[in-house]
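Repro case for the chain-ordering regression, as requested:
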Amino acid sequence: MESQIPRSKSQLPIPDYQSSNSATLKVDRVTKRYGSGATEVTAVQEVSLTVAAGEIVLIRGPSGSGKTTLLSMLGALLKPTEGTIRLDGTTLSELAENRLPDIRLRQFGFIFQDFNLLSALTALENVALVAALAGAKGKEARKRAAGLMTDLGLKERLNFLPEKLSGGEKQRVAIARALVNDPAIILADEPTANLDSKIGHEIMRLLRRIAKEQNRSVVIVSHDQRIKDIADRVLWLEDGQFKEMVTMATDPVCGMAVEREKAAAQLELDGVTYYFCSRGCRAEFEAERRGQVVGDRLTLQVGRP
Amino acid sequence: MSLARRNLFKDKTRFALSVGGVALAVMLILLLNGLLQGMNAQISAYLEHAPGSLVVAQDGVRNLLGATSLLPPGTAGDVKARGAAKVVPILSQFIILDLHDKKQPVYLVGYDRAQGGGPWQLTAGREPRRDTEVVFDRILAGRHNIAPGDTVEIMDRDFTVVGLSEGTTSWMTSFLFIRRSAAETLLRAPGSASYLLVIPSDRVGPDLLRERLSHLSGIEVLSKREMIANDLKLFGRLFSAPLQMMTAIAFLVGTLVVGLVIYTATVERQREYGVLKAIGARNGVLYRLVATQALIAALSGAVIGVGLAYGASELIMALRPQFLIVLEPAESARAILSGLGMALLAALFPARAIAGLAPAEVFRR
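-- result from build under test --
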């Protein structure tokens, strides 16, 4: 069944191309333990997860629940103790350590809470550097970075040092850096934590469009409740295990994010399930649909010779 | 290259410190080496300019400056008879002068003006024509305000300074030149010679002559090169080791300065390097990054250090002319290479820090 996610117009444009690099990330019974013997700690325990291309998954949970460890394993920064992580045909968890940097460089885009831009480089250089690491020549790397940043509304900020940029601009530079090598998966760690509410919303919408319009998978670890609004699924991680899974939908009438399992009302129509925040919205939706159907019929009758 | 350069120049004070540290170290290395070279040049100066290719000394004496030699009577005739084109006798001795109440060691050379073995360049006056005349080393004379026409006491006898010689300075001891007959009187060795500077005849050649002279008793025959080498070895034993140790310390200090600065800069940017690692930069890329930073700092410092060394050597020689500092282009090139060595060694410290960075740490706050 198809979920209904609002495609609200973002104030921020996004690069106008589809990723040529869509992939499905599959995590199968992954466990991560640190230490051994009496000091052994299990950070993540038998977690399974599939992230489809174009899907946004939000992982939430209390501090110390294993979110960061899981995110690190998803991004090939850390190897699981047990279980497998696969990106399409490649089993990341079995790859030799020296092959992982290339995978990270080309398949993953990382977005951090603290932006983590290189302070000595300009915004443009921060993005171009990552393209250059993947093999783009200097001029080509800069051109690609400049194009991407222009699309993200940073044309006037290309040659600014990070210290001269606002939080939102820094995060957009970080997003451009994450996108510059056309990755299949975007991994974002608290991407809105250091941003004010308005900019946080912009960044959320931007991430949503990156997922939906460019068909990239986006995995977000965050405490920010608002991110539920853009997520396709919300996973609750506690003590290293998924305790609760919430699938999000959007009320097609008022646009509110609704947890499917807790929706006040739902309606199945032509094989599609719609979820509503209230019975009132469902009634309005039904009335609209009836009118639309009647209208369509009228149009057909009028058009008939 | 760009990131390395930007990282370095972002903190200008730190960059200046690292460049300055290397510059001072390289300057010190060059000056110490230059001093050693200068000392060697001063030690070998007399024999380099003296006539002949063989030196005959008293049996058992194998250097000019570190021993007292007195040849058996008639040695000059014997040497000449065995195939020498020319034999130049000198009578020499280390003596202590009392100049303005300061004890000053000098190397006194008694020579025959007609045969050679005296000063090879005069900056003032003339060579001694009488047994009461002396040629003083120019620098030594300058240090004691002695000018041609002045009288100095040498071993309880008065001598008139008639000339000043050039290139006969040493920071340990300088050369004085008097007539050999005057030296015979002073040293109470009439008709004697300390050394013979021998020019072999074309017919016999140095090797054959040396072989022939080896049969004479009471003498030692060495080539001039061997004699110079022995003098250098003797003084080298005294001064080379400490100077070389100081050079090594300067190299070490320079390396540590660059290493510490680049290490601190790396540790401060550890998170940024972690981010690069997380994004997909390999360790090799990061090693190159810190090595380039170290290289830029060390090479900039080395080039500035070479310039400083030339300036400082001129200053030192102007203020203390007894110190000869010889800076050769090859030494400067070596100093720049040592800067390169410093950079590579210095890069080891931060490279270790980078190697130990776990990319997953980038998500930790």
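Ordering looks correct now. Chain A touches chain B at residues 68-69, 71-72, 75, 77-78, 98, 101-106, 108, 110, 112-114, 116, 118-121, 125, 129-130, 133-134, 177, 189 (CB under 8 Å).
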